[in-house]
UniProtKB/TrEMBL annotation:
The active site is at residues 356, 387, 515. GO terms for biological process: gluconeogenesis; glucose 6-phosphate metabolic process; glycolytic process. This is Glucose-6-phosphate isomerase. GO terms for cellular component: cytosol. PANTHER family: GLUCOSE-6-PHOSPHATE ISOMERASE. The keyword Phosphoprotein does not apply. NCBIfam families: PRK00179.1. Belongs to the GPI family. The gene is pgi. It comes from the Bacteria.
Amino acid sequence: MTAAPETDAVTRAFEALEANRRALMVMSLPELFEEDPRRFQKFSLKLGSLLMDWSKTRVTATTMRLLVDLARAARLEEKRDAMFAGQRINTTEDRAVLHVALRNLSGAPILTDGRDVMPEVAAERERCLAFAEAVRSGALRGATGKRFNTIVNIGIGGSDLGPAMAAEALKPYGKRGLAVRFVSNVDGAHIADTLKGLDPARTLFVVVSKTFTTVETMTNAQTARNWIAQGLGEEAVGRHFAAVSTNLAAVNAFGIAEASMFRFWDWVGGRYSVWSAVGLSLMIAVGPRHFTAFLAGAERVDQHFRTAPLKRNMPVIMGLLGLWHRNVWSYASHAVLPYDQRLARLPAHLQQLDMESLGKGVTLEGKAVTRPTGPIIWGEPGTNGQHAFFQLLHQGTEVVPCDFLVAASPHERGRKHHDLLVANCLAQSQALMKGRSFEEARDQLIAKGLSKAEAEKLAPHRVFTGDRPSTTFLYRKLDPATLGMIVALYEHKVFVMAAILGINAFDQWGVELGKELATRLEPLVAGKTMDLAGLDASTAGLLEHLRRIRV
Ligand code: F6P
């Protein structure tokens, strides 16, 4: 498939949306609710028990129709089908994009270059799940014959964030006596703190790296290797390491046995890889049944994405709203606010997914983009965020579209905590939408006993403009299938935005320059070379100061 630059049809579709935005400026969100009692029914959608409510965003039926027109103008369905058909849509790396094959539990053929990838996918998944089960059951033990009680995942970016986020999210499905920890940062503090208190005889390392060359991961893996060798002897190393990679030669060179090597393929992008062998630590943590349910949740979303009409297609609507906010309303950031403590790492995972995919400055043809691309993604679990940055969300000068995520039921017994959590979640989106006028603020103060003059002086500080958009995702419980759905929804949302903007969501050249410069600077930092000639004055000055003060 050759991707087109922005066509006249896309330009016209954006112009129509711009006109719609101007027309909507005269109506506030509360007015839109007053005008249409069926607003919630019109702007919400269910997929299983998961409900998406975008009625608190500034859209009308006309907006939704124009957004769907935009998707059609950009040939979204054709581009989506090209991905599922295994075409090489990652043009700068000349690769297919087939993470959907990893959760294709139906086993129906998925072809790339005329070859069905499903037999290999299924076989590797079976190997991973069997390995996970063997660790869990104690059939697979360390060099001294002891059962493993801790799995340490070593990886970074997509080889860390997905599994780390999901392992935290699915803690209630973990196994008693088996902990999973994650090391990513090259900062020695991370691995030192992670290994503290662990028994080498009972620790299994899973080294995850698509390339098996990433310096952070290789440095941490080497440190872990030394730790095992020191604690148990060199010959124990092989029994305490597993590897996940596409680079089998490098894994071999590291000394990890063939039976403990699990592979995936170049058509799986790092940030889309949790569904593959990259999820090995998660598989060990939750076991084969729950991991399969996680895949099944994602598969359900894939089927929906492929078949539902655009106007009732959840990830398509998420992507279109993303463009509506970023490109038509010019909102530069987007907050992800899980009212679900175990989704604490979801914002971090989505930061990589969204910002590495959409943070691009050129189109697929290498031309400078003419529209803003991805927003800045950020967030923290509610209610913690309420006591930190929500002030800005409610009264700051930046409007930040928010995603709220909340479960109807908790895993814990007793409803007190959860009822409060849900009430806070609903209250926040309500407050963002409705706001509070000057008159309301003033009258509240007068009712509290303040004089009219005092009330009028203080009231401006208590005014909430409202009209701030948010989308709420409400699901039954954070179980493996629901988590799979949530993650896959966001993946396809990103696909939709990239397809319409005409950018490549699957490469990440923007991370390269820093890596190259770090490689050049390392000898200067380490003191292997002292010559600062040719460096810019700031970097040279910083290195000089470092040399003076380091102990
Ligand atoms: O530096 C960015 C990146 O390439 C990510 O895209 C990727 O998820 C991460 O590094 C880790 O790469 P690898 O799995 O090859 O170690």
